[in-house]
Design a protein that fits this description.
Helices cover 76% and strands 0% of the residues. With 239 residues, the chain is mainly alpha-helical. The protein has a single domain, classed as Up-down Bundle (Fumarate Reductase Cytochrome B subunit). Helix 9 packs antiparallel against helix 11. The protein is globular. The structure holds protoporphyrin IX containing FE. The site of protoporphyrin IX containing FE has 26 residues, from helix 4, helix 7, helix 9, helix 10 and helix 11.
Length: 239
């Protein structure tokens, strides 16, 4: 196995996971140490239960965005819901979810059809949503003013991951997930990656390396808003 393949397939995954955990923990620690502001920025609910309900509504339905920019809310909500669906679907890449589904009574053909239908549709929908989010940042002067290089780069990185994912999904020869399961099982048990067939597939390598880059960048970027939201909304809504 050549050195580049070994570094990208056998070392980068561990580095990415460690960077992600340490840097995210550090950011959560700094958020937790922030002094709660003494003022309430907009009417806050009287009790803690209603406060928590508000945070949940914000996290699951993007409620304030709905009130602010309905078009952006549409793209953004679809993007995030489909992304969640794709993450769940990726369980098949890492583990043998198929055997659990088969025990539950699904046939191999039904699993394949579900994965092909839902995964295929999700790949197309998220690509369209990403292109629209990028176009919005570039085309609307009001939005372009507050757009930095980091915003564009994050969307381009996510876009490249989506395109290479779709290449595997829709490619002439459908990627064999038994190879990725074997590879990740070896990584998880520190079994070494020499001879892993998954690493011979160029599109898979590009997709995975970009995904690990994204994982490493997340704690340093705005993408960590999925964690930050639980802190900021508690703060502005707290008495
Ligand atoms: C280490 C992390 C990742 C690995 C090993 C991985 C691996 C794969 C594989 C093997 C496929 C082909 C599945 C099939 O055809 O049955 C795929 C598809 C795909 N991946 Fe990933 N992926 C990773 C992370 C990501 C991330 C972070 C995103 C999105 C930001 C993403 C987006 C997609 C999309 C859109 C598809 C095509 C639709 C689908 O099959 O769900 N992947 N990925």
């Amino acid at each position: 196995m050549d050195l580049v393949r070994f570094m990208l397939g056998g070392v980068l995954p561990y580095v990415a996971v460690v960077v992600f955990i340490v840097a995210t923990a550090h950011r959560i620690y700094t958020w937790k140490r922030l002094a709660a502001p003494s003022m309430t920025l907009f009417p806050a609910p009287a009790d803690d239960k209603a406060n928590k309900k508000n945070v949940l509504k914000e996290a699951l339905l993007f409620r304030s965005l709905f009130g602010g920019d309905r078009v952006l809310w549409g793209f953004a909500w679809v993007f995030h819901v489909v992304l969640l669906l794709i993450f769940v679907g990726h369980l098949r890449v890492f583990t043998n979810v198929d055997s659990i589904l088969m025990t539950a009574g699904m046939s191999a053909e039904a699993i394949q059809a579900m994965s092909g239908g839902v995964g295929g549709a999700a790949g197309v929908v998220i690509l369209v949503a990403t292109v629209l989010l990028l176009a919005r940042r570039l085309a609307l002067p009001r939005v372009r003013e507050i757009t930095g290089a980091a915003d564009i780069l994050a969307l381009l990185l996510i876009g490249a991951i989506i395109v290479t994912g779709n290449m595997m999904r829709f490619g002439a020869e459908h990627f064999d997930l038994a190879l990725t399961r074997e590879y990740f099982a070896n990584l998880a048990t520190f079994g070494g990656v020499t001879g892993q067939a998954a690493l011979q597939n160029e599109v898979f390598m590009v997709h995975m390396v970009l995904a690990f880059l994204l994982i490493m960048v997340i704690p340093f970027s705005k993408i960590l808003h999925f964690g930050g939201i639980f802190f900021t909304h508690e703060l502005v809504r707290k008495h």
